[in-house]
Design a protein that fits this description.
Elements lengths: L18 E10 L7 E10 L13 E5 L19 H10 L7 E4 L14 H26 L9 E6 L1 H12 L6 E5 L10 H4 L1 H14 L8 E7 L5 H12 L6 E2 L7 E6 L6 H11 L7
Parallel strand pairs: 3-4, 3-5, 5-6, 6-7, 7-9, 8-9
Antiparallel strand pairs: 1-2, 2-4
Helix pairs in contact: 2-3, 3-5, 5-6
Bound molecules: 3-(4-hydroxy-3-methoxyphenyl)-2-propenoic acid (FER).
The site of 3-(4-hydroxy-3-methoxyphenyl)-2-propenoic acid has 13 residues, from helix 3 and helix 6.
């Protein structure tokens, strides 16, 4: 997919904004201890949500990067990150139909080490698909007027959230159709696996997809990064290795295959780049 810069109009305050709220849900640690956990996620409800009680919406899940938490993606309930303004304008302009966006966290209480340790973060990102399918999706579908269908759910994330997104693709495709990893590769075979052993990483991902019963036509992957991004040297070989498998077909446009790759010239490892990537991804996240 060809990269296009985010139009300046998408960064302005929007005259018909959505609103941010929060939700809490019950989950567990999904380790040997099975510790009960009470977790929080931020929720974006599009303009019109409160006025149209009959309408149901698709849902995008968006995961933060390493060191972050559920507040990071939106910049708190005040929406300081630029993501909310982009969503508001993308919906108001008709670029994309209204959607709900959920910003959860893979970090858990009592596991603050995940903020500092990459190894712990990877452990938690790999547990997240279980939490997502067993606890978060049911809680979201119960609390909000969603379209409870896998083709009406998408998952994205930045950096370690991109890592989480690959893990969701591998393990949660029964519940999620489209996955959009932003500037993060998959560390299922070890840290920086996309760079150091791309073919093994791709093979492991495809094996997980087979194990979860997914066929090539059941998934859509939209991968993004920038050529100056620290993830570039890992994500590019990984995407090439995926394209070499029987499962994935690399295509220029999302409708042409199940794997699309978009590179931003001079793109860095920042959330601001992510809003540009997501703006391009938004029209392709749902419905297929
Ligand atoms: C990557 C490049 C950088 C990546 C993660 C990071 C998962 C950064 C992680 C961190 O320091 O939190 O390709 O993929």
């Amino acid at each position: 997919m060809r990269f296009m810069p985010l139009p300046g109009s998408m960064r302005q305050p929007c005259a018909s904004p959505g609103r941010l709220t929060e939700m809490f849900y019950q989950t567990e640690s999904y380790d040997d201890q099975h510790r009960p956990l009470h977790k929080r996620a931020l929720v974006y409800l599009p303009c019109g949500y409160d006025e149209s009680p009959e309408q149901h919406y698709p849902v995008l899940y968006m995961m933060h990067g390493g060191g972050g938490d559920e507040n990071e993606v939106f910049g708190g309930l005040e929406g300081r990150s630029g993501f909310k303004a982009m969503l508001d304008n993308a919906i108001a302009s008709g670029h994309v139909a209204p959607m709900i966006v959920i910003a959860p966290t893979y970090t858990v209480e009592g596991f603050e080490a995940a903020r500092r340790s990459i190894d712990v973060a990877v452990l938690l990102t790999h547990r997240f698909p279980t939490e997502l399918t067993r606890d978060l999706i049911p809680a979201v579908d119960a609390a909000f007027r969603t379209l409870p269908d896998r083709r009406q759910r998408a998952f994205s994330g930045f950096s370690m959230g991109g890592e989480t997104t690959w893990s969701v693709l591998a393990n949660a495709s029964r519940e999620i159709w489209c996955c959009a990893p932003l500037s993060g590769d998959y560390w299922i075979k070890g840290l920086k696996g996309g760079k150091d052993f791309p073919a093994e990483t791709a093979a492991a991902l495809v094996e997980q997809l087979h194990t979860s019963g997914a066929a090539p036509e059941d998934v859509r992957v939209l991968a993004f990064t920038g050529d100056k991004d620290i993830a570039f040297e890992a994500l590019q070989p990984m995407v090439e290795a995926l394209a070499d498998t029987d499962f994935f077909t690399l295509a220029d446009q999302p409708d042409g295959g199940n794997l699309t790759w978009c590179l931003k010239e001079n793109g860095w490892h920042t959330y601001d780049d992510c809003w540009e990537y997501l703006f391009l991804a938004l029209p392709h996240l749902f419905g297929g």
